[in-house]
Design brief:
Layout (H helix, E strand, L loop, with lengths): L12 E3 L2 E3 L4 H4 L5 E8 L5 E6 L4 H10 L1
């Protein structure tokens, strides 16, 4: 992926991890089984989200105990 902002051309991009629950039972039990990587430009604030592969069953089990 590019290391510059597609909107302003800024070179400082901050990466993070965002976990969310889906629909149905995952929402009801607050199981955060969807993982995204937001990338935000420090210059203009433009943000893009990239879907990451799920960590699998172990990641889901850990999430149940850590909230």
């Amino acid at each position: 992926m590019e290391n510059s902002c597609p909107k302003c051309g800024g070179m400082e991009i901050e990466e993070d991890e965002l976990r969310m629950s889906g629909r149905g039972l995952t929402r009801y039990f607050n199981i955060q089984n969807r993982c995204f990587e937001p990338r935000t430009c420090n210059r203009c604030g433009y943000t893009e989200f990239y879907r990451q592969t799920n960590g699998g069953l172990l990641s889901t089990i850990i999430d149940l105990f850590t909230g």
